[in-house]
Structure formats: C-alpha cells, structure tokens
Amino acid sequence: MSGEGGGSRKGEGEGKGVTMRVEVDVPKCVASGQCVMIAPDVFDQNEEDGIVVLLDEQPAPELHADVRESAVVCPAAAIRVVEK
Ligand code: SF4
Question: Regarding predicted confidence, which is higher, 33 or 18?
C-alpha cells in the first residue's frame, strides 16, 4: 500500500498515481461556458463561437475535482473524464 494524501512532494512523483484524461465531444458543445468558469485552466472557449477548447488533456491532480464537476454540469454532456 502506498500512502494517500500525505505527500506534498512535487516533481518526480508526478505522473504516477491517478491520472486523468479529458475528452470533449466538440460537436455536442452548446457553448454554455460552464466548464470554463469551473476549470479555466483546463477549458477555454473559442472567441468566435464560444465552443469549448480543451487546454489540458491530462490535468494535474489538484484540478481533477473541478474537471469532474465540469463534466457533471455540462448541459450538453460533452465532457468525458477517464481516470485510471
Ligand atoms: S460546459 Fe459543455 S456545453 Fe458548455 S462550453 Fe463547456 S463543453 Fe461546451
């Protein structure tokens, strides 16, 4: 068993543990901007039409909660989160 929640070291250990991959189904996006408000480091919106732009396909662990919430609130269900 490896410890959970204790380590504060960053750097070499990153990339191990839980990784998250984010996928957006761009054609489904209705440009509501919810995801951008919740996780602006991960999602952006196209300036012209407001359609989602994925900034970070593999967000850092501290962003995972926000990304999950974005996926839940997205009115178009256009955000898919894969965790392993
Ligand atoms: S929350 Fe969903 S519909 Fe709204 S901009 Fe983001 S991906 Fe598009």
Answer: 33
